[in-house]
Each structure stands twice: as C-alpha cells, then as structure tokens.
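Question: I have long wanted to understand how a fold can be written as tokens. Here is the record:
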Amino acid sequence: MASVFFRGPRSSPRFYARFLDADRVWRSRRVRQETKREALAVARALEAQAERQRVGLERPSITSPTCGALMETWAASLSNRSAADDRCRLRLHVLPRFSKLRIADVSLPVLMQWLDELRAAGQLGSGSQRHLLNLVSRFFG
C-alpha cells in the first residue's frame, strides 16, 4: 500500500513516502533518499511500523498527555476574577467528559455532542452551558 511520489525538478527530486499510519490516516512524509527504490523501501518500513503499532506489538513513538492533566495544570494557573468559579465548573462538568481524551481526540463533533447532552439533561441553564463552552474554548485557545 505504501507509495512514493516526488516534488521538484527531475534533476534533483525530493521524494515523499505515502503510507497508512497507526490511526488509519494516509500520511505523507519527506524521505531523504537518492532513488525512488530507496524511498519506497523507507515508505514500506514506515507502514510496517505503523501496522505494528496498530495491532499493539509496538508502542506509539509519541504519547501526548490527556486533556485532564493539561486542564488541571491550566486551571491552577487561572488568575481572573472568576477563577474559583471556573475551576469548580471545570471539575464538575468538563473534566468528567474530557479528562481521558487526548487533545487530538477532541473535535467539533465531540464538543457538539457534549453540548447536546448537556441540553438534553436539562440540569444546566443556557447561560451555564455557554459558560462551559467558553471555558473549553479558553482552554483550547
């Protein structure tokens, strides 16, 4: 499945490897090889490494911290007038939902689903929901 393509002039091409990564997303990465055959070997090695990571035989090379750890660090640094209120809302409503997710896992559909669940539960008013969205937005900003 791995492939190679080049950019630049034919006299000095820059080869790029295209492979399926551990998250099943197509990635392109520049490989600094002289020939297309060498670049293809590197592309196949990258794809094999991603396959080993996908099936659990090898650990991912980069592990990012969870949102929970980052949010707690961020909450401790708040110094605005409503910092105590922000920390309380974060602890009660935001952390239970996002604490185990990684930053890359939080996307617009995840946020919209969370807001829909808050609205459906009916425990918080629209102003409080807006405050929570603002809190999450400030964290990611």
Notes: The chain has five helices and three strands. The radius of gyration is 22 Å. The beta strands are 3-7, 14-20, 26-31. The chain has two domains: 3-55, 67-140.
